[in-house]
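In practice, a research group might receive sequence data for several interacting partners and want a quick structural hypothesis before committing to experiments. The following worked case mirrors that situation: the sequences arrive first, and a predicted assembly follows.
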Amino acid sequence: MTKRKKLMQGNEACVSGALYAGLNFFAGYPITPSTEIAETLAKRLPAIGGNFIQMEDEISSIAACIGASLAGAKAMTATSGPGFSLMQENIGYAIMTEIPCVVVNVQRLGPSTGGPTAPAQGDVMQARWGTHGDHEMVVLTPAGVEEVFTLTVEAFNISEALRTPVILLMDEVIAHMREGASVPERGELLVVARKEPKEPPAEYLPFKPQEDLVPVPAALGTGYRYHVTGLYHDETGFPTGNPEKIDGLIRRLKHKIILNKDKFSFFEEHLTDDAELVLISYGASARAARAAVNQARAEGIKAGLLRLITLWPFPSTAISRICANASAVITAEMNLGQIYAEVCRVLDSTQRSLSVTHVDGTLIQPQKIFAAIKEAAK
Amino acid sequence: MSKDFLRISPAFEDIMPAEYRELVASGPYGKGYGISDLGSHKELLEEHPLCAGCGLALSLRLTLSVLPAPEDTVIVGSTGCSALAFPQVALHNIHSLFGNQNAVAAGLKRALKLRFPDKHKDVVVVAGDGATADIGLDMVMQSWFRGELITTIMLDNEAYANTGGQESGMSPKGAVLNMAPKGKKFQKINMPELAREAGCVYVAAVSPANPKRLGKAIRRAILVAREVGPTYVQIFAPCPTNFKFKPQETIKRIKEREKDGTYLTREYISQEAQEYLAAMEGGNKDE
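A structural hypothesis for the assembly, expressed as tokens:
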């Protein structure tokens, strides 16, 4: 049976994906270019018995999500650069307290108020390092409307499985673009449910890691009483000043993500098998990069595209493997080379690594990337 | 007040834009104009990109026309529709981060006092309802608690208009907006009462339907904030675009709301502010 495609906007696909994944709580604040996510959920979430709340700012929006998630809800908020900056302290809190939630950041041109309707990918490093202290982040970035849907589902799944906030990093073009997308049937995609403790409350340790290094903190109100704090804490949840326990926690929070990262290290290859020139790109830029690669092939240049879908943890292994035989690697992105610097770190130091940057508030054009390919192929 | 510092150096006169020369020749600087002088001089805001019939645009025009000392005024604004107009205003203006306006204004006012201890430098916050009563409420109220000598003016269009019409804390209960498809669920925030309780020595709620009253409130608020304490003016500025009424019906809308009691003009003046104003307004022909 051929699947029917539906004309959808990226932001709408995010809503549909979130509802598919079991979203039942959303708190947000209007900000371009993410507003449609909140506006659509204001209509759809109450209709299915969920809770929608417009908060007074972005700090309170993510804080409300954290509260809801502690009670077992699947919670999400959506914002853009300025609001994402405000959320950073709470993102760190969710990492430290191991509270699942999904944060959608529809990037616009920054810094500061920047360009509310201008496409950009300048929040790549902020998504990774925006909150203070050592930590790992999971950041996924879609390049099409259908992928917005599936990655939103993935974001919830990873968040639930690893008990950590997951960032869905969109850009303005992907969020506002409308294109045909086939919507998966119920049961077609995996949906991970919140784990519940098996032991009785008396023997229960909320922050005791399981084999996958992830603990099973119970939903509040289910009879398991414990303490939740952003301070360093032990397995009981109570604050600790014990250096060994502090060291153990900070390392476990990092390692639980590293240990499991192969389960969600997503990328897509296009004509890379025999490629002499490998382009690395992501999000809306990758659409332009793909067109540039096709144009290069038409002119006999052996170019290929590696499209990153999981940005963080950085897919170093895939990049060094796919680029191993490339004479040059070109990273194309709508910022001043944030992923390019990471790519350079991964490549053999003798390998040519080039950067195509774009920060004028317009969508990067295939011609610009093609010109870089031609130059590199000379 | 001298406007010497505005004078164009003779050598540059021919290269300055006509608009600027006109502003120096017949702008409001140092003149002490009021509402009734509108039309007789070059205004601080003459062109702007706001929608036809925008209550906020009209309120802004009236507000700018009554500043006691435009040459010594700094406006601190925030994100929202008003931020679209301020680049066209011939005044110092800071478009601060969303919600941070009263904190920026407090720092600015204190530094101006350090640098110009013997002069009045008016710091006037002009921001929307979302910036003032939602995202910026903590900084707005803390500035009042601390007694900062600044004037806070809210242009209340009862919605987040710039992002396409979502509810704000100042939207009336029941208002159907994009994040409130079934109507807003809680009451409009009573900001004038909050301001009074938080330490504002002068509080007024006005609208452009009564320009003289609006002008008087702004002028009083700015004068009182020079020496007595923080002041607050709330201007009801309905938004035809998001509340979907005809642009020419903005004033009619205000009058209807006044009639049904959902918008009230009011003024509160503390004892100390009253005494200060009595001394200031004694010889003022405009009042």
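Before designing any experiment, note the following. The interface with chain A takes residues 79, 95, 97-99, 130, 134-135, 137, 160, 163-164, 166-167, 169, 178-182 of chain B (CB under 8 Å). The first strand of chain B starts at residue 73 and ends at 77.
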